Amino acid sequence: MKRFSGAVTLLLVAGCLNAGDSSNTISLPFDFDVVGEGFTAGVAEIHQDDLSEVELVGELRALPDPLPDRDGLYLAGTNTGGSLFLFMVKRFTGLLPNETYDAELLVEFATNIHQGCNTGVGPTTFVKAGASNLPVESIADITGIFRMSIDKGTGAAAGQFTQHGDIRNGAIGCPTPGTYAVRTTEFRSQAASLTTDEFGGFWLWVGLESTAPGRPEVYFGGVVLRLTH
Known about the structure:
This protein is mostly beta strands. The protein has a single domain (26-220), classed as Sandwich (Jelly Rolls), CATH 2.60.120. It is 3% helix and 41% strand. The protein has 2 helices and 15 strands. The chain has helices spanning 32-35, 51-54, and strands at 25-31, 40-44, 57-62, 71-76, 84-92, 100-111, 125-132, 138-140, 146-148, 162-166, 181-184, 188-189, 194-195, 202-210, 217-228. Strands 1, 3, 4, 6, 11, 12, 13 and 15 form an 8-stranded antiparallel beta sheet that branches. Strands 2-5-14-7-10 form a 5-stranded antiparallel beta sheet, with no helix packed on it. Mean pLDDT is 91; it is low at 1-14.
């Protein structure tokens, strides 16, 4: 994986962007090898009594061979039913305060599921991401099912944020096990505008929408967030 570079080069440390740029468009490269500390993992679309079955793992860890010697955000969980959402989120500050932007996101991730795999978790798990005005969290409703605080969409739908395709890495064939490879998505626009708070803050999140039983696992290398106002 390569570290990201954008129209604006930023030092993304401890969640502070220091990006008081007044131009119409800024590009923010979030390299998780640099800013991966401090992300929080969560799960939704499951009853609170069944959380232990998910065995959620969301953490910063070294990428597997043959990927480069660097860290990424590892996200995995077991879907025992028809639907499961896994996510990792972190708050950043340093943009212009109380400013409204249109947002686009590009995601870089790696899996060992090749493009030729037409069954299993590969074609049934979708990468989603977004930049949110509001805290991104899962909250149990009156029935005990955890629901997201944002509209991330159901299944393959993007909702108010972005969907970047399934988790197959693009390599040919379908060996078992496959070889880890990097996939970089195209920019996708989110429907929700982003309005920063008084500190220029917002929540950046990445997630996996699993629509069939199995245990998807993905290493996220980073996100590029492009903002226009």
